[in-house]
Design a protein that fits this description.
This protein has about 325 residues and is an alpha/beta fold. The chain contains 12 helices and 10 strands. Strand 7, helix 9 and strand 8 form a beta-alpha-beta unit. The relative contact order is 0.12.
Length: about 325
């Protein structure tokens, strides 16, 4: 059974506080996540000071706040991330962080993560992507807001610069928080599988857990879901996140789906073999049949249990002659 990698996307939900980040890591571990993922950036290097916030990032308490000011409050230092990675090792959960600028990328590389993630907003940032290709790590490519052509261009760029398709996982994603159900388009996972012949996954911004669970049935090998302690906390991503209880439920459901998917060969399973004779039927004598009497629909019937002549032989049995005497309900 192939195990889905489940990422608890903490992102900025630590609200700039290291103690909250540690608590989120602990809760993600308890909930069954395989990875926690943060966001590493130097605010001055990724955004101009007057950039506006996305609509979902605005609330009544911060109407006039710029995206720059918001991100600056959520920025963690390199020493903070070293502490967090060390804490992840201590409690045995894997650490990831998305780098949004070149300095942050080089720093995260020094922490030796399993994956580098190219976030949806950076899929056209070939400068950053080229540097990622030099680091020789597995890559997660998120595709929110992208056309298939843009995904193809970036995929080809990765391959051109020496990345094996076996080291790329393409995440289907919709970058609206929360994502409306009619905009999910899970069938895109099949499109990605057919076109790129690589691993696929889903970065989920919908409410609840249904879509993440369904994505596993569609072949997702990675599920990424935003994670918070409480959706009522202040901050841009809390409202579109799962709390610990919900995340635990999602993980349990995904593990059940993994088991349920099973193999591709249709055959009786070990658990149901004992029911075959009970549920199926056999050919029986409808009433007393004498030796030499012809078998007809008037003296034969089909009943349970199925431990005798199979009803698949019904039409070849009709018209033959009995070689012995049968009593009512005796197996033919």
């Amino acid at each position: 059974m192939k195990k889905t990698k489940i990422i608890a996307e903490i992102g900025p939900n630590h609200n700039g506080k290291i103690y909250l980040a540690k608590k989120l890591i602990r809760e993600a571990k308890k909930a069954g996540a395989d990875y926690v993922k943060f966001q590493t950036f130097i605010t001055e290097d990724i955004i101009i000071e007057k950039a506006k916030k996305a609509k979902y990032q605005i609330n009544k308490n911060n109407k006039n706040e710029t995206q720059f000011s918001m991100l600056k409050k959520l920025e963690l230092s390199q020493s903070d991330f070293k502490i967090l990675q060390k804490y992840c090792k201590k409690i045995d959960i894997k650490f990831l962080s998305t780098a949004f600028d070149l300095k942050s990328l080089n720093f995260i590389d020094s922490l030796k993560p399993d994956y580098f993630k190219i976030p949806s907003g950076e899929i056209t940032n070939l400068q950053l992507i080229k540097e990622i290709t030099k680091l020789k790590r597995k890559i997660i490519l998120s595709t929110g807001m992208s056309t298939l052509k843009e995904v193809d261009n970036t995929f080809r760029f990765l391959i051109k610069h020496g990345v094996s398709r076996n080291d790329i996982t393409i995440l289907h994603c919709n970058t609206e928080y929360p994502t409306p159900m009619e905009d999910v388009n899970l069938n895109v996972l099949k499109t990605f599988q057919q076109k790129f012949k690589t691993e696929v996954g889903y970065s989920d911004h919908t409410k609840g857990t249904d879509v993440s669970i369904a994505a596993v049935a569609f072949g997702a090998s990675i599920i990424e879901k935003h994670f918070t302690l409480d959706r009522k906390m202040s901050g841009p991503d809390h409202k579109a996140s799962l709390n610990p209880m919900e995340f635990t439920s999602m993980v349990n459901s995904i593990r059940n789906i993994e088991s349920a998917l099973g193999g591709f060969i249709k055959k009786p399973t070990k658990s149901e073999k004992k029911n075959i004779n009970i549920a199926r039927k056999s050919i029986y004598a409808l009433h007393k049949i004498n030796k030499g009497e012809k078998f007809t629909i008037k003296n034969l019937c089909i009943k349970r249990p199925g431990n005798g002549l199979s009803p698949t032989k019904w039409f070849t049995t009709l018209g033959k002659f009995s070689k012995k005497k049968y009593l009512k309900d005796e197996l033919i």
